[in-house]
Each structure stands twice: as C-alpha cells, then as structure tokens.
Amino acid sequence: MARQHEWTHVESLPPGGRISPYIHWTSAWSHSDQAFAAQDLLDTDIPWLAHAIQTAIGDASDPWGRLLHHVLPRHAVPSGAPESDPEPAKSTSAKVLNLPPANDRVILGIIDDATAFAHERFRLPNGRSRIDYLWLQSARHEAAAPFGREYDRTGIERLIDQFRRGPMGEMIDEDGLYRHASALDMSLGTPQSLARTAGHGTAVADLAASFGAAGTARGRDRFTPPGEMNIAPEDFDLAIVSLPERLIMDTSGTFAEIFMILGMVRLISHVENRSQREGKDYPLVINISLGLTAGPRDGTSLLDRFIAAVNAQRPSDRVPIRIVVPAGNFRQAKVHAVLDAPVDEKASPLFWTIAPDDSTPSFLEIWSTPLPRKPEVLPISLTLRPAQSKEAAPLGPVPLDGVFDLSSGPQLAARCYTQWVPKRIDKPSAGGRVRLTLAVPPTLPGNPARAYTVPGPWQLLLEPANASPSQSGWPLDLVVQRDDMIPGYRGGGRQSYLQDRQYMQVDARGFTVTKDRPGPDGTLPYVRRAGTINAFATAPEIVVVGGCYADTLEPVDYSGEGGSGGQGLRGIDASASASMQRMRGVIRAAGSRSGSRIGVGGTSIAAPVMSRELAKAMRPLSERPKLSGVSLLRRSSHDTDPPPVLPITENLSDRYQNSSGAHKAISFSKLP
C-alpha cells in the first residue's frame, strides 16, 4: 500500500550554504527571465569598502540579482546596458586618510520604509533641507542611481521650492511633491507608505534626527524646540535610504539583506565622498529598524559578514561607523525552541502550528550546534506528521545540500532543504552547522498553478540519524521565520508558531510570563523566550537596542532576548523607551505630513532613540577611534548583568509624558 505522504529528492544545491532557501522557494514559482547583476550594483570607487564587499559577499549576491525584479517595480530598474563613465573614478582612499575629525557635524543614516523627506521636521529654520542624501529604491529610475532615484540636498530643496504654495510660499504641496519625485505612485498596485497617515520610516527618522518646525510656537503639546537638543539642527544631517514597498511587505525578508547592504554601501560611499570634498572625517551612525526571527544568528549571515568586513577593512585612524538595530518584538510569539535531547514518539510532543487563511509560505529553520567537519549525510532524522494526518513521513538518511519534497498525492505538502553552512566560506575546514529549512505552502488556495496545504499543528520528531546526540549536533535550535502582516500592508501573511504542553503564556494569576520557567520535572519547555533576538542583531560590531516602558524603565514584555542556552547568542547592549506604559503602548512621533502626529511603539522605535544619543555623543569627541561614551555599549555575550537603560532625556520629554505630565529625565552620560 502506497504511503499517503512521502519524501522525494528534487535537486542538489551548491555547497557552502550559498543558496538561501527563501530565494530558492521564490525562484521555483517564478516564471520571469528578467535579471540584472546584483554584483555590479555593489561597485564602489572606495578601495577599503570594495575590499570589504569582496571579502564578505564575493559572488553570493548572484541569486539575488536574478530575482530582484520581484521586489522592484519595472520603472525602477535600469533599461539596457549601463552607461560607462567617460573617465574612471579616482580612488578616494589616500585623500580621506589623516583627515581631521569633523567635530562640528554628524551624519545619521536611516534605512527603512519610505520617509516623508519634505516634512517640516527635517528642515532648517531657514527652510533648507537637513537631508544630505536620499535614495528612493523603488522610484522611477534615473541614470545616477543603480536603480530607483537618488537626490542630494540641492535636488530636495529644488523640489520643495517647486511645490511651495500660498502668497509667501509658506505652504508646501507635499502630496504633489512626492508624486512628482516618484516616491508616491498609487498606480503600482502595492501599498504606498507615504499615502498613509502613519509611516514607519518617517516615525523612525523623526525619533532619530528631527527637530521642531521652524518659527512655530510650541507649548506642552508640541515637539521639543531645537534649543533643547544640545546640538544645532544644522550640525545634524540625515542620509536616507527608502526601501521598496514589496520588500517591506515580505516580512520573511527574502531579499532584505541585499537591499540593506546596497543601502549601506551607498550611505558609506556618500559620506566618504563628502569627507574627500570638504576635508573632514565625518562620523556616521546608521539606524536599521527592521527585523527577522530566523537565520544563522552566529555572525555567518551575508549581512553579518558585510558589517564585520566593513569594521575590519576601514582604516584604523578613521572615524568609526556605528550601526544600530532593534532587538525585535517576538519574545512572546513562540517562534523559538531548543531541543536539549531528541524528541521521539515517547517524548512530550512538539508541534509547528500553521495558521489558516495564510496566503504566504511558512518557514521553520532547524540548526545544529557547531560541528568540527561536514557530515557525509544528514546527521538528524526528521519525521514530519502533517496536520489532520495520522501518517508520519520520515526523512533520512539523506545527503546534505539537497532539496526534498513531501507530497500528498499530486499536491506538494512541504519542502525540506538540507544544508551544510560553514563557519567560514574561505576555510571549509573551520567547521560549521547543519541547517534544515522546512517550507510549507500557503494555506489559502489561490493561483491554481501554485501549491497550498492544510493548516493546523504539524508534529515534529527529531532524533539522531546514526551517532549520539552530541555527535549529531544536539542541542538543536529551532526558529520559525517571521511571516506576519505589517499594518497598512496587504501581504496576507499569518505568523506560524511552535507549541509544546509545558510552555506557559500566563501564570495562575493571569499575568504574562516573561521568563522561561522549568516544569515540575525541573526541565525547561522546548519553546523558549530566550533566543528570540532579532536575526539582524547578531553581528558583534553593531549596537542592539531593547525596549522598555517609559514610565518605569522596565523591559517591555515583547522585547527580543538573546542568550539561548548552548547557542551563544548575544544579548542586547542597552534599552530605550519603546512604549509609554503598559496601558498606553505608544510614543508620539511625526506623521506622514507636516504638522501631523501619530502613536508608535516597539523596539524599532527604541533603536532610533539610541541612534540619536549615539550621534550626539560622537559629534564633540576629538579622539574618534576611542569613543569612550560608546564603549558602554560593548557587552560580552557572557555578561549576565542587566543591560543599561537609556532613560528619557529632557530632549524628548514631550513624547513620553503621561496624563500627569510626569517623565523621567536622566542624561546619556549617566549610563552605568
């Protein structure tokens, strides 16, 4: 009798973990032959940055280059062959060495959703823009940009002047300006951030680097006047990269890394070129308020390698580049589990629950602990019992670097990628980890040509294939990839999650449980809050910011946590306000149009608060490489002390006032 569910080998993958399962899944359902070379987009005339790109990425961006049309609208992509420069760009390396540090100015970079760049909060009292560089990645293409459209300060000011209205030009037609700049295009069929009242990128930029509108009287209910920032607006420049709408819609982050890296390359190149022109070494802080749940989270991801290479290749006598990211909001989402021992039929069951009415695929990553060498076959025996099925489907022993499909008759039920991910791509003998990636099709039937599956709990059985658990990679680390739907976007995703009987969401009193607790037998549940830190927040060179309540400075319940047992995950470096109080989870920020205000929350809102304070701390220092103020944020992965909290300063007090008008006020210099 034929089995109802059976695994079949589909194809082999290139070795070294170079092919992302998410990219492979997307390409399997792609029927377009449009492509352009992503590696060409990473070209730069800055030698140390070019070396960092080659060291970290090499040809790993090629799969992205073949599929970038999934993210970019057609009008944003260059048509035809790129024009060659009449004269080769001159190296900037020698010209920026030994430059005096720019003590009078700091540049704060934002890589995020679309930002309302004509907003009054980003203009000087004389009407000039404070945005020194802007890249609209999904705007109609112009030749100067690799794709999309770039503006310098002069171009932005020209737009603002062109759309001034009123007898004295006191008003700006922001809607018309954004449409003209191709930053807002309702004909694309994708959600437009600048068409909504609240925009994530605008709020992040506001919290990171905005000032009160010029010439506006401000009382208790208005934003802080520039004089209270302890830094003049003209000394606090912005450089902004607005990511494509389709990239933001895809919360699984299929293409996020390459677009973020491209954004960082352009931001760094802009600051380097400006340093060359003006003879000053400008400090740069880059805020990236984005997050994923799954990934290597050990420094081997494409993004982690790039950040490490930038840090290593940048000349030691240069101003350091600081990158700030949030800890993530998935502490209570049940997206992480640790298996200290095998899970067989006799053990307490572990389930991966797939939500109904989900129009996007769901992914689960299973990672081994580091192994000294690549196994000949998959050392982990996986058995999957689909929802609403009594029959289990075992996988193994099978070769590594393969793709296997689980079929239910003619229908694809699931796909499994078995990969060996080396610790160092240039040194295979350095060891690595085994990664299994389970991909489940959408549960909402749609296109007849595409697979869909049944929702519900899918049981997971994980045992050693032939050797002992320790030799097979135990303990195992399981992480469900992010698949939720961002407010205002119609992505259609619904978050899947892990389940086990021992996990407690609330205690006997009905209060939320925020720390992992052992059960009656003294063992921890499979599903754990530890290890839920943002997958973009694992490089040792970045600053990771958790969230706290503004009124009590206690950590918010949802802020991601590092320190997964046995996996060596780093923790957060510091916390900043992410919510006003438990019963009021928002903080005030600028809306998408001048004069508007919205409520925002989450660790992605805490990160720009830290970015602002970091930028202010970097500006007056005369010995940049030492950065004594920033050393407070360098924490060991073995540090068990609570991270420092960045309290609300007098600079931003109006954003956090509660109903009584009370707020905390402690300066950045008082961090322990």
Automatic annotation (TrEMBL):
<dbReference type="InterPro" id="IPR036852">
    <property type="entry name" value="Peptidase_S8/S53_dom_sf"/>
</dbReference>
<dbReference type="GO" id="GO:0004252">
    <property type="term" value="F:serine-type endopeptidase activity"/>
</dbReference>
<feature type="region of interest" description="Disordered">
    <location>
        <begin position="76"/>
        <end position="95"/>
    </location>
</feature>
<feature type="compositionally biased region" description="Polar residues">
    <location>
        <begin position="650"/>
        <end position="661"/>
    </location>
</feature>
<feature type="region of interest" description="Disordered">
    <location>
        <begin position="626"/>
        <end position="672"/>
    </location>
</feature>
<protein>
    <recommendedName>
        <fullName>Peptidase S8/S53 domain-containing protein</fullName>
    </recommendedName>
</protein>
<dbReference type="GO" id="GO:0006508">
    <property type="term" value="P:proteolysis"/>
</dbReference>
